[in-house]
Amino acid sequence: MTFSLNHLVIEPAGRSGGQSALSREVPQLDEVRTFAANHSAFDDAMRAFYAEVDSDIAARSPVCTNRGHCCKFTEYGHRLYVTDVELAFFADTMSDDRRLPYVPGVCPYQIDGRCTARDARPLGCRVFFCDPGADWQGPVYEQYLACLKQLGRRFNIPYRYREWLSALSDVTTGERSARRADR
């Protein structure tokens, strides 16, 4: 199967061109979750990947002094980027009902300085620390980003790298529209 969050396309492996079985400009969150949920090997691979990342980071003993301020992207002055591989895992793992109301420039999964999406959080969240001595972050991030690209190739998820809040909005737009239509 091929899976793309940009234009959701699900088709038999090895098929090129032609009409796909399913194609949408903005994927429905349920379709993203269905892909990941129906592929236990994908889930297992992502959990093993994040366990390795977390172990590597923990061994470096980084210090967090800002207690979630970095999740307030606009206020903190930075942006978080995510791959579609991470987004597929995140959408499958997280339940949308845990999200806070939308606040521009703020991660909707951060509550009182704590991440409510800890198990599914993307690589950038796992690697970033405001610790001034954490000069290892860039090289470690690039090392694991290469691993994410390999996971994408393994599971036929095309590589795309995009801003976190926009990506979350893309995969939840269809679900919100469907809920509005049901009312």
Structure, explained:
The chain is mainly α. The protein has one domain (27-182). Helices cover 46% and strands 9% of the residues. It has helices spanning 29-37, 40-59, 73-76, 84-93, 123-127, 137-154, 164-182; strands at 8-10, 22-24, 81-83, 110-111, 114-115, 161-163. The strands form 3 sheets. The protein has a two-stranded antiparallel sheet with strand order 1-2. Strands 3-6 form a two-stranded antiparallel ribbon. Strand 4 and strand 5 form a beta hairpin.
Q: Number of helix segments?
A: 7
Oligomer: single chain
Distance between the termini: 34 Å
**Overall structural domain count:** 1
Helix content bin: 40-55%
Strand order of the largest sheet: 1-2
Largest sheet: 2 strands, antiparallel
How would the global form be characterised? globular
Mean pLDDT: 74
Give the uncertain stretches in residue-range form. Answer: 1-28, 174-183
**Rg result:** 17 Å
- β-sheet strand percentage: 5-15%
How would you briefly describe this protein structure?
The protein is mainly alpha-helical and 183 residues long. It is built from seven helices and six strands.
Keywords, separated by commas or semicolons:
183 residues; mainly alpha; two-stranded antiparallel sheet; 7 helices; globular; disordered N terminus; disordered C terminus
